[in-house]
Structure formats: C-alpha cells, structure tokens
Write the structure tokens for this entry.
Amino acid sequence: MHELAAEFAFTAHIRGRGDEAEAIKREAGFRARRWVVERTHSWLNRCRALLIRWSKKPENHLGFLHLACALITWKTVRSLPLPG
C-alpha cells in the first residue's frame, strides 16, 4: 500500500496493525484522531429523525439530512472566532 502511495507521490497516513497502540504507549499526551467521517456520522446520529427513519418518502429523509447538515455547519461556524 505504501509503495502505491509513493508511486503517485502521495503522503501515506496509513498505520499498520498495532502501530497506534505503540504510539500511545511511547508518547505522553498522544491522542488518537477521529476521522472526519466518523465525527460527522456521530453528529448526524444526534438527529433522531435520521437515526430512526420515520419518514417513508425519500424526499423527506433527504430534507432532514440537508437540515441536519445545515445545523451542524451553522453551529461549527458560529463557534469559530472572528478574524481580526
């Protein structure tokens, strides 16, 4: 996998099995990073209408998904400090 990433001049962020556990033992203050997708799914699972799909129409479910994403974005932007 690392050879393929190097062939296309990518920086690989792929850890082998047990590498993260070893890094936690070696480095004091080391925190495992949650991937962006995992974090977003966690935020979306807070919305009960998405977690348990009550709506039968796909348009309604898509509308709830868009609303949840808009609320997450609004909360994130609102919590950022203003520039300057």
